[in-house]
Prior knowledge:
heterotrimer; B: about 500 residues; mainly alpha; two-stranded antiparallel ribbon; 23 helices; about 0% strand; globular; C: about 325 residues; alpha/beta; D-Maltodextrin-Binding Protein, domain 2; 2 domains; six-stranded mixed sheet; five-stranded mixed sheet; 12 helices; about 45% helix
Amino acid sequence: MIMVVKSLYSLRKQGKLSLQTVIGSSPSNSIKTFLPQIIFLAACAMYMVLIPLIGFITSSVLVLTFLLYFFGNTRIMMNLITSVIYVIVIFLIFTYVFRIKFPMGPFGF
Amino acid sequence: MGILLNSFTNFLSFQVISALFIGVAFGILGGALPGISPSMTIALLLPISLYLPADVAIAMMMGSYQGSMFGGSISAILINTPGTASAAATTLDGYQMALKGQSGKALHMALYASVTGGMVGVIILLVMAKPLSMVTLKFGPPEYFGLMVLSLSLIAGISGKSFTRGLISACLGLLMATVGMDPIYGTKRFTFGNINLGDGVQTLSIFIGVFALAEILSQLTKGKEELTRKEETLSLEQNTLTFKEYFGNLWTIIKSGVIGALIGVLPGIGGSTACFIAYAEAQRNSDHPEKFGTGIIEGIAAPEAANNAVAGGALVPTLTFGIPGDVVTAILVGALIAHGIKPGPLLFTDDIGSVYTIYIAMFFAVVALLVVGKLGVPLFAKIINLRKSTLLPMIFIICVVGTYSTRTNLFDAASMLFFGALGFILRKNKFPIPPFVIAFVIGAQLESNLKRSLILSDGSMSIFFTRPISAILILVALTMAVLMLVRNYKDQKKEEAKSTE
Amino acid sequence: MKKLLAVLMIAMVAIGFLTAGGATESTAKTTIDFPTKPVELIVGFAAGGGTHIAAELLSPEATEFLGKPLQITTKPGAGGAIGATYVADSKPDGYTLLYATMSLPISLYMDSVDFKKDDFVGIACASNVAPVLAVRADAPYNNAAELIAWTKAHPGQFSWSHPGVGSTLHVLGADMMFRMGIIDTIKEVPFSGTGEGTAAVLGGHVNSVVGFPTSFMDQVAAGKMKILGVSSPQRIAEFPNVPTFLEQGYKAVLTSTRGVFAPADTPKEVLDILDKAFEKIINSESYKQRGTAIGEPPMYANARDFNQMYQDQCNMIEELLITLGLI
């Protein structure tokens, strides 16, 4: 697990590095233009760290709720409900039909 | 002929037909879900199939093989996420069509192309299994290398406006293909001591990253108003495929089917290469090559016909030599052996009945695909009606789940994020994505067959030119590359002339 | 927010520990209750591959003899090392087991892996397959001695193939060539899979392929290929007329065993339960039948014997890899 996180960090670092070097001359400006992408990728990185810690279901619900809000759906309660249903459906299909095992959190799910 | 008819009538039982439909539906579902590869789908059916009669088991597996090949296109078209590696080429035009609101048309084209391609595969298998099996044997490492060089030269055709940018993209793809263990000497390259990179970067992580995630990142540049806007869909009339459109592309479909089947005959190349070759070939012969990648049905017809035809081709070496043409047929061989059917040179003389059962199962699998697909397409097409703001985050989750599922390894999901960022940067800087992906897919085979050939020839390059097939392939590749350069140069001159006027 | 999360997490972990602690305390006095949930069997190779299918063979009887289903998960990559790492790092409670081949000792020495030999204990040997050396039927040699004579007469012209660098068959094949004393005068051409290698042999691109018997049975029956020798202490059922290398005077006897491993710190009681359950599974008629059908000749060895086999194999492979110059 630690290794996954570690490698993830190294990957992310490279990602950021190339983002700034490629995009250009004035980093402050490019950071502003690409702020949504950077926030999104940060959330993704956070997600990768959370999955082994608190399990696939919980972390996915958290991240999806945030992303739905971030992409412009302002009704938070609605987002949460959508996330829970969506994640559970995906989880059930992948686990019971295709026998994929997901990391579980400390609460048993 | 008598035996064929006999097998045919035996086949038409309720059990077999229902197994066929279950297989197809299961295959479509598995194919459409990213990360569930056709081989995983069939591997899941294997334990069940051991308890079924042989013909029922064969029917189910053939159904799921054909189903998953088509299923991959559903997610490729609707959410720009290739559900299987073979559907990567379909995303190029499929998703663009979906963006224009023509997802129904795109899905129908994919379905009909898949079905026709599947039929081409069956027919080729039926009529030419024996002669084609010789092709499998004629292809040694130098011939494979020649074929890969030819495929690589096709990239030039789909590199878009700028040849140079296409080349840079392709080189980056080849570079990514070198990650992992050297296929011949076992040296670890660019793995940074991480065993998760031991086998290189996962193909699906790259595909999903540069297609799906990069698209999500690009969509983020749009404002929130645009993302939350309700998607308008076209009326049903505009959204189905007309007869004219289908028959207009029939030649492309058949040709792509033949390409797919021929590539399938060669063990180890795989569906995604076949699809890209078919796509590039369709574009090269098109009256309007510049429109490829902007959402036209030819761009869906070619790869989709090819990937379903691969199945037929892959069965050629499987049945004639017992040498599986791809991972899926390898599992199929296991299942057949467990049922007492031994694929191999003796099958055609000792057990022709089983051969026909397999042919017929494949034929009906294609028919069942048509039925299930026809019923399913209107359902699938509804997915796209969601608002972007809701759809994109959901796609993101399924991308992570899919890349994780390929090896049940979170590392592959993390590397998908990396390639998403990379794909986004490439797109922003106008580097075309297809050459990158194709070069990555071809890279491994190109390298390992180059090295194998050189071991066999004690390091002499002459091996590629003294063997007729590889010599022809390489010469054709060189000619095509030169022609392409000339055309590119002329185009550039024209542009310059235009701009000076 | 972060603080709150941290506090919550700590609380959760604490509760987890408390309940877990309580549970072990109460059960330690009585007999252990295992298994109470499905047992996961990790396979370090791709879904649908030979190793995965061999592992699947174990699952139907598991519910009967183990009491809970055996859940097979593939974690492919790096020649099985990714799956092995996962099991070595998992909680040693008997719920995460490894189905491994000889690739486990191979990756111990050939790869830079994070696990050690003693991180695993063997539970049961499930099958044993002997590799063979196959050539085209029209080749000018029929046995090991003739092959050696031919390679002496034509140095650098004989080529052999295996399904990938670091694979079990690579090492077993290298052992054959080494024992015959020809490894330095022949070419090695790795392919990705026995199928590709077989096609190359049939097409005359390479001279020989090292593989498992089922890959060649039909080719031999059809008169397209012949087997020069079997690396095994005894002759094998698939090719009863082919002499072993040992009979021909060359000490290539390594076979590929497959079996079930557990993390080393698994409690003794749990190991005993698993040992007994797998004994019943592997010795059941239905398992034997399925195994023989798909070319996985069943061979059972109990935990103690299998462990000894594993230790011996490790030493043997280390020695072999050093002699061959592969490490």
